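hiii so um. not sure if this is the right channel but i have a protein structure encoded as tokens and i wanna go backwards to a sequence. like what aa goes where. can anyone help
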């Protein structure tokens, strides 16, 4: 055996046997995290793909790996490459290599090993490390909790198992593994990236998914791309220019973080936490009446496939100059996510036609939905608000005893305003501009999860 072959054969990066392990498969043990007083106060995370050695911003965040695996494979293949960079941050979570239920069990075992090995390695280099925990079906319980000391601080993410976007609601699956984790090593603290389920027990530190996203990292010191002026149309491109500009909707993969659960999505269904959602599904031909806490009423017409086709709002939303009372919205359905998408308002300045049931079926077919004024319409996260407005939702909320509205006009342009005060309206091209609206000296994004929502269409 040559010296070169000997070095390769005995390399610790080939053997990966330098750390003590536990369980049947000797999964490396990640040392218990020693928390400081302010570690979890106003905690935000930063994706590994957004960390930069040259950037001194965001060093007070904890680095997470709730990303697609290809974005961080290198920490397994060449862990020293990012060593100096990761040392600069408050702490890191262990790399969350995928644990999809569709994976072969040996791959799930391998990814659990890689998760813990990287954690043990970086801890040995002086980095503060918190294990991120993922699981598959019950057969993975034999190994997926190994390598974690009893009473440790751990991190989980509910994003990919929540019933939103194109994600299938896998709450039951998630809670089964979560409860098993709690009973196995009784974690001292659980960092939850994205909104926790109400049934989750333990000392949970909730980290708002949106506040930790790239949207709140807009003070990057790097020089903008030299192509930006061409892409934005500020400069015209010559005939022989090699720059190709493509338009359309771009969905960033760091907005939709990956995690455990199924690799496939699911279809929309009414949320038990949002009673108003129930009005979009029903018996073909019926008209469902919904009463909101602020006294406004919606009439929703159900089509022959059992899904809403049109909705009448018996209100002007505090903007009689833009909405007739009543006005209608056609209801379309997203072909990918399966969720309802209200269209722009259809106004009737000369009086609205009768709102007849589908194919003029019996007017006795109907159901009245009372939306309780118990806070369930409030936005728990900025992400939830973002999806609502993105999908065409209209909202009325109260802050400091003043009512505000968010609506769209016939062209789909978003407006936010104080009710019955047109001069306060701000016209916004997207949700981010809505979140920048100033209310009592504060941006909406800083209070949107604290306002009282009194009307919400979706």
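sure thing!! here u go:
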């Amino acid at each position: 055996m040559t010296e070169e072959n000997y070095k390769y054969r005995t390399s610790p990066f080939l053997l990966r046997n330098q750390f003590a392990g536990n369980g049947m498969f000797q999964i490396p043990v990640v040392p218990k995290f020693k928390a400081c007083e302010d570690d979890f106060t106003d905690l935000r995370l930063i994706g590994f793909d957004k960390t930069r050695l040259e950037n001194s911003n965001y060093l007070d965040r904890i680095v997470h790996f709730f990303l697609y695996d290809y974005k961080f494979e290198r920490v397994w293949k060449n862990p020293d490459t990012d060593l100096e960079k990761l040392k600069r941050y408050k702490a890191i979570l262990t790399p969350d290599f995928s644990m999809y239920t569709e994976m072969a069990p040996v791959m799930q075992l391998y990814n659990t090993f890689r998760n813990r090995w990287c954690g043990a390695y970086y801890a040995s280099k002086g980095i503060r490390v918190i294990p991120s925990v993922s699981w598959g079906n019950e057969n993975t319980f034999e190994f997926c909790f190994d390598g974690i000391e009893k009473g440790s601080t751990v991190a989980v993410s509910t994003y990919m198992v929540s019933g939103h976007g194109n994600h299938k609601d896998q709450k039951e699956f998630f809670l089964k593994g979560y409860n098993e984790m709690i009973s196995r090593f009784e974690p001292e603290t659980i960092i939850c990236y994205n909104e926790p389920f109400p049934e989750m027990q333990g000392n949970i530190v909730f980290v708002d998914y949106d506040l930790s996203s790239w949207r709140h990292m807009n003070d990057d010191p790097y020089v903008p791309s030299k192509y930006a002026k061409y892409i934005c149309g500020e400069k015209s491109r010559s005939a022989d220019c090699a720059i190709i500009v493509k338009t359309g909707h771009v969905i960033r993969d760091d907005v939709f973080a990956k995690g455990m659960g199924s690799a496939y999505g699911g279809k929309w269904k009414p949320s038990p936490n949002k009673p108003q959602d129930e009005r979009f599904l029903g018996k073909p031909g019926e008209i469902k009446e919904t009463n909101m806490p602020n006294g406004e009423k919606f009439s929703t017409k159900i089509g022959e496939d059992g899904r809403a086709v049109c909705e009448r709002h018996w209100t002007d939303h505090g903007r009689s100059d833009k909405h007739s009372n009543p006005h209608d919205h056609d209801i379309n359905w997203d072909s990918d996510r399966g969720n309802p998408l209200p269209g722009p308002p259809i106004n009737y300045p000369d009086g609205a036609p009768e709102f007849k049931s589908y194919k003029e079926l019996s007017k006795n077919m109907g159901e009245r939905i009372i939306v309780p004024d118990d806070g369930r319409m409030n936005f728990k996260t900025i992400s939830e608000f973002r999806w609502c407005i993105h999908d065409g939702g209209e909202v009325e909320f109260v802050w400091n005893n003043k009512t505000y509205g968010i609506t769209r006009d016939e062209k789909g342009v978003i407006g936010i305003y104080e009710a019955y005060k047109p001069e306060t309206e701000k016209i916004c091209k997207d949700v981010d501009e809505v979140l920048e609206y100033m209310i009592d000296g504060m941006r909406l994004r800083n209070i949107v999860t604290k306002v009282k929502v009194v009307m919400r269409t979706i």
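oh and Residues 51 and 166 are 28 Å apart (CA to CA).
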